[in-house]
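Good morning N.,

You mentioned wanting to compare the apo and holo forms, so I went ahead and generated the holo version with manganese (II) ion. This is what I fed in:
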Amino acid sequence: MPVLDSIKEKINDSKSILILTHDNPDGDAIGSSLALYNALKKIDKKCVVCIPVPDKTYKFLPGFDEILMGDILPEAKDYDLCIALDSSDLNRLGIARELFESIENTICIDHHITNQNFADFNYVNAVASSTCENLMIVLASLDIAVNKEIAECLYTGILTDTGGFRYNATPETMEIVATIMETGINIAKLYRTIFDIVSLNKTKLIGRAIDRIELLSENRIAFTFISLKDFEELGLDESDSEGIVNYGRNIDSVEVSILAKEREEGLYKISLRANDYVDVSVIASKYAGGGHVRAAGCELNMTLEQIKQTLTEEIEKQLK
Ligand code: 5GP
Ligand code: MN
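and this is what came out, ligand included:
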């Protein structure tokens, strides 16, 4: 049976659905989770979205206030189906990993090239710009028409994962966006809310990260970091660092930008971005991370000097 038919059957047969996404959720993770939530509610399915720490940037999305937040997770026995979104492997689910594994039926909808098909049924099209784009196909197969609420969530995921329609957008992406726009959502307002409006303290965090940028390998690599002290002093957390890696990437001579975010002493979350030809997903995968060809991430248990050296060596293998 085609996977979309199996997914449809599973959803129709289930009584109570749990929606999960990855740790440090971005716009596509939260957008796809809430789009599915609003869609399932529309067909009167009992469902819950659980995201321990959702990025508040997306608090305007319909259903955000109903997300189950915090470290206390729901019980597996209350659900007969779990759907993981935008997650390439089980570890991406963070503290919800065991919960996912304990629920009888599982589905994964994702678009990462490094996806490990960890659910019973996996709808993964890595050509798609975003999980929201793939979710649109799933919703069509479920015969759920997109309303304004669903449209706002889907648009947010596509907009953020394509960096404002710059990366990975295909003709199919734009056709899906056209359908979404037909609902009459205010796209200018969404764009400004997501990309332009920042707090004073995030502006200061950006400033600190920019100030520390170092150029390596004949200026083709940009390296910078954010320490736990920065987050503490500014009253921010890792979710507030989204987008900061792009400042390094935008420097004229740079091919790869590295941002190291301190999680605990000696442990950093790494964001990697490439411009034209370096495949950063290969590098992140080597260190148990993953992602896309030009945008990937991993965790490194090293000092900043070691990170710089290790990643520079890896990137130089691919630098022309
Ligand atoms: P970011 O740098 O924005 O955190 O992540 C860039 C891309 O890499 C996203 O698509 C994200 O899902 C993926 N990614 C980041 N960290 C990890 C990781 O530790 N494991 C995997 N599999 N993917 C990651
Ligand atoms: Mn995504």
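The domain at 200-316 is CATH 3.10.310.30 (Diaminopimelate Epimerase; Chain A, domain 1).

Happy to go through it together on a call whenever suits you.

Best,
F.
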